[in-house]
Amino acid sequence: MVDVRSDLDAALLAAHAKGDGFELSRLYADAADQAERDQDTDAVCFFLTQAYVSALETGLPSASVLNQRLVQYGREVVQADLMS
Q1: What is the pLDDT of residues 70-81, one digit of tens each?
Q2: pTM score, two decimals?
């Protein structure tokens, strides 16, 4: 049996070590998706926040989608400048 959580944790640590913002954003978004399946709202929002910050720092277009997901959970306000 594959331990998805351990694999994700290892991948996150590796991405942090490399300073790979693109990969960090993707991996944190994946972790948020998993937490959503587990119905753990606080974990979802934590991981989405990390994904969002990495996306902003890296200039990724996914920042607007991540912002909207946080807005849906009531954890962020709409960032209009990301919608262009």
Answers
A1: 999 999 888 876
A2: 0.86
